[in-house]
Amino acid sequence: xxxxxxxxxxxxxxxxxxxxxxxxxxxxxxxxxxxxxxxxxxxxxxxxxxxxxxxxxxxxxxxxxxxxxxxxxxxxxxxxxxxxxxxxxxxxxxxxxxxxxxxxxxxxxxxxxxxxxxxxxxxxxxxxxxxxxxxxxxxxxxxxxxxxxxxxxxxxxxxxxxxxxxxxxxxxxxxxxxxxxxxxxxxxxxxxxxxxxxxxxxxxxxxxxxxxxxxxxxxxxxxxxxxxxxxxxxxxxxxxxxxxxxxxxxxxxxxxxxxxxxxxxxxxxxxxxxxxxxxxxxxxxxxxxxxxxxxxxxxxxxxxxxxxxxxxxxxxxxxxxxxxxxxxxxxxxxxxxxxxxxxxxxxxxxxxxxxxxxxxxxxxxxxxxxxxxxxxxxxxxxxxxxxxxxxxxxxxxxxxxxxxxxxxxxxxxxxxxxxxxxxxxxxxxxxxxxxxxxxxxxxxxxxxxxxxxxxxxxxxxxxxxxxxxxxxxxxxxxxxxxxxxxxxxxxxxxxxxxxxxxxxxxxxxxxxxxxxxxxxxxxxxxxxxxxxxxxxxxxxxxxxxxxxxxxxxxxxxxxxxxxxxxxxxxxxxxxxxxxxxxxxxxxxxxxxxxxxxxxxxxxxxxxxxxxxxxxxxxxxxxxxxxxxxxxxxxxxxxxxxxxxxxxxxxxxxxxxxxxxxxxxxxxxxxxxxxxxxxxxxxxxxxxxxxxxxxxxxxxxxxxxxxxxxxxxxxxxxxxxxxxxxxxxxxxxxxxxxxxxxxxxxxxxxxxxxxxxxxxxxxxxxxxxxxxxxxxxxxxxxxxxxxxxxxxxxxxxxxxxxxxxxxxxxxxxxxxxxxxxxxxxxxxxxxxxxxxxxxxxxxxxxxxxxxxxxxxxxxxxxxxxxxxxxxxxxxxxxxxxxxxxxxxxxxxxxxxxxxxxxxxxxxxxxxxxxxxxxxxxxxxxxxxxxxxxxxxxxxxxxxxxxxxxxxxxxxxxxxxxxxxxxxxxxxxxxxxxxxxxxxxxxxxx
Length: 988
Description:
Blueprint: H1 3-10, H2 19-25, H3 36-46, H4 59-65, H5 70-88, H6 96-127, E1 133-138, E2 141-146, E3 155-159, E4 167-179, H7 181-184, E5 190-191, E6 209-210, E7 215-227, H8 233-242, H9 250-280, H10 286-303, H11 308-325, E8 328-330, H12 335-338, E9 344-347, H13 349-353, E10 359-365, E11 368-372, E12 383-385, H14 400-415, E13 420-424, E14 427-431, H15 434-446, E15 456-462, E16 470-477, E17 481-488, H16 490-496, E18 497-502, E19 505-508, H17 511-526, E20 530-538, H18 541-552, E21 571-573, E22 584-585, E23 602-611, H19 618-627, E24 631-635, H20 640-650, E25 659-661, H21 662-667, H22 670-679, E26 682-684, H23 688-700, E27 705-709, H24 715-720, E28 723-727, H25 733-738, E29 741-743, H26 748-788, H27 809-819, H28 822-827, H29 851-875, H30 890-911, H31 927-945, H32 947-953, H33 960-987
Parallel strand pairs: 9-24, 9-27, 18-23, 24-26, 25-26, 27-28, 28-29
Antiparallel strand pairs: 1-2, 1-3, 3-7, 4-5, 4-6, 4-7, 4-22, 8-29, 10-11, 10-23, 11-12, 13-14, 13-21, 15-16, 16-17, 17-20, 18-19, 20-23
Helix pairs in contact: 4-6, 5-6, 5-10, 6-11, 9-10, 9-26, 10-26, 11-26, 14-15, 19-26, 22-23, 26-29, 26-30, 27-30, 29-30, 29-33, 30-31, 30-33, 31-32
């Protein structure tokens, strides 16, 4: 029988069964573990303890995927049509149009591939870590093996700092506490015992289990592996990702819509042009038909903004790079715009909105209350009196009785700890239980940690258990002999206290003072602070000798405790000593230490309030999101009271607002769920499937949803959302792979920066789309109207042919090369000319190219065509406009018209920067735009004036009069659109 079969049939719910029964079914023993031979056999049968992952996509497939875009398909059709037209004309020279468009397609694919490869490398760099290992018993010996080689039935040996390598049933524990925030979302370490729980117990409350990817914060334990690989809780979540299909981003949907629209326009243009030319032609010979077809195809190809895909890719890539400066890694180019259209941001709490660093905020003693400022593990802040209990430090420094009592509380809490506070490269961290680390940080802020150095020697410990709800440590004190320091639930410690410390003296704890302390605890709990009390007493000589005897009889591991060194600038913590209580074995009553009877007649020092505080920048980021019309939801696995408190502190919800729990969500039908997500902003005690239901409900209501998180439990919802955002530092590998964007600094404010950047990118996409479409519309209307009106404007009289073009094919190609590249790209990096965060998010059904833009496109295109043909008519004899200037030959007049159209498109760059804001607003903020315009002007002057280029483009030199007329006529585009904007602003 393989281990997988045993797992499937014997331990479906191992947490509800006696540990001995689970061990028996798995064919292993608690004392020797598996044999090496059996472990190898099970590894071969079940496979490595790895999570399932998609195979790497080869580079050639990733390159081809860049071509899977409707607009690229349209351009490839244009390549084929252009090549066919070149062949029909006799295959003279090279097919310039086809080669240029093909080059654009290839450039676009390369840009996309390179940028996404960079993002993949950045995510890999964020995720790099040492290979995980686990300590197991095999053949009765301790053995460190790669976690990927763990098998069902292995006996894990757990100790402080270990990462759990697989799901396992606990067999015995000694003060074991495990941080499960990556799986459940709770920042507080969970106390573990071997005692079974009910079969319907929620994941977060299965205290006899440890799970893959969680971390041991304190103590030791022994557990038997019951699930590996895909069968673990983390594996189940990873498999949920496979059922979540990735949908196109809003931008991809928009580009698809634009491509379809352009495809229709191209066909219509070709049909109308060919039909019109054939209707006007006096001779409908085969040559005339072919000429009409070629002109129709040429105009249709000219209508396609072939530079759009490459410019779009470049603009998105530049946006990705700007976000990288803010420590955000975007894995897919089109995702960078999606956050700009987000109407809801669903955020995890722990590590995202909060720091995932437990922090002492308040200290209550017999003489008053002190507040501790600063958040996180960095010991920056102060401990100051708070006489009016408003949460703000008083201007007077901490002094007198309150200072004495607060010092004892924080030092006592730091002494009753196994945690260590360390700093690496100016980044502070806690090794061990985060709650115990909070005492170390607060003591450092008080500045009294150095006073303990060399004075105390730890000689024993009475461990914490869930039944006792307290723990005690024993120290040899150079001044007072042996002392006992206790830390635990306030109600438990109050029952064991007979005195209270008041200004350095132990005073009788009367009912009035006990009631006042209890009321303070109730108040702090109501504010979602975790409360812990600290008490102490000096042992008698007889008790001290008894402690010494038991401590020195503990055996394994040695008995001499090293003196602590809290004053070290690099590491602060409690000296470790062996516990005087043996590990609690499975299926046996918990053994009380022989010293637990010392925990009586204690002196109450005081109570602290601890919380995982919000990130300082998160409240500002939430307010900015609200200003932008973006709703922020907190979805967490933490306690409802804690979630509500943090949400209120951040401005996510009013104090006392509804907090929807996972149990409530489980009982809701779709209608009730829709009503809940429309109202509530805070969700607590939720499971992964609840998060996905919330995301789906929001999306069904028409919202564009962003989901942020760091734990494995967040991964399916990240994939289901329109854009998933993972934390780079605290985020798990599964979460990073599921996300579209990874925050390298885990900073929620970066998400709001990404929203701003996404909106700016969307505005810039609209800018260059407005520019490209109106400019191409100007070209199409110029050529089409010029052919239709050839007789009226003097073209026919000066040509002598049936069909004459106002512009030559090489000149149209030149216009596209000069104006569709540099200026359009420069608009893609245009700074915002409007307050992008001062407007609501765009609706999913809002089009990039909407009716208002089409009005502008048609107006500007018509004015361009009128100005170009007007210039041509002005300089040609025999047209509608006859002046003293109407004396040019066709080549000179065509050169003037050609230059007018080029300059008109350059004036149009100024128009296109905003739908309503004047072109003269923020006129000189974009140096790239002015540089590209200047370069385009110089190139056009060269085409007109340089003899070699005159031959290539059939141009003639222009005098100052011609240039003055050309510039004046081209500027009509600017003035006409300015008039339209004035009307639009008045109507708005």
